[in-house]
Write a structure and sequence with these properties.
Elements: H1 3-12, H2 18-27, H3 31-34, H4 55-64, H5 71-84, H6 87-180
Length: 181
């Protein structure tokens, strides 16, 4: 691993880069080539009081690796990372993130199932409408035919009554005419 790859990894995620620092410190033998002159100014001084170590302090020293790369600073960064991000916390955070992802997946699955149910309900309504319309038309035709039959039956009965009434009148007239003769 190269110096700048290590610095980039540290800048992106210092908590998960501790093992990279260990690997770099143990495998890197050419410190003389890469180690910058150690600048011990007030701005870049390494604080040994752990109570003053925080995320901003860590980030400041990670950024200083670009211009002030040294074995001593890298070891100090490793100590700060170990203090700020104990292994248990990293593992707990990882488990917590996994639980959040699982919960998110479950929620998305529930939403997906609800959407499918809504879609199926709408599709069933869509496919039922033509059948219902056809059934309604058939029922209406049957009702209309029944009504027509009833009307024809009534008309026939009226015609029969009229005919019978006319026949009776005619018979009565014939009887009257025959009796007058």
């Amino acid at each position: 691993m190269k110096k700048y790859e290590l610095i980039t990894d540290l800048e992106v995620n210092p908590a998960k880069s501790k093992h990279l620092v260990d690997e770099f410190l143990s495998n890197f033998e050419e410190w003389d080539k890469y180690e910058d002159e150690f600048i011990n100014e007030e701005k870049v001084r390494m604080i040994r009081n752990k109570s003053k170590w925080n995320e901003a302090y860590l980030r400041k020293h990670i950024s200083l690796l670009s211009t002030n790369f040294s074995k001593e600073r890298l070891q100090h960064i490793k100590e700060v990372i170990e203090y700020l991000y104990p292994e248990e916390e990293i593992e707990t955070e990882s488990i917590f993130n996994k639980k959040k992802i699982i919960l998110l997946i479950i929620i998305l699955l529930i939403i997906f199932i609800i959407l499918i149910v809504i879609l199926l309900i709408n599709l069933s309504k869509f496919f039922q409408h033509p059948k219902q319309n056809t059934a309604n038309k058939i029922n209406q035709e049957i009702i209309e035919k029944s009504a027509m039959k009833e009307m024809k039956k009534k008309q026939t009965q009226e015609v029969v009554k009229e005919t019978n009434g006319t026949k009776e009148k005619n018979q009565t007239k014939v009887i009257e005419q025959n009796s007058t003769k």
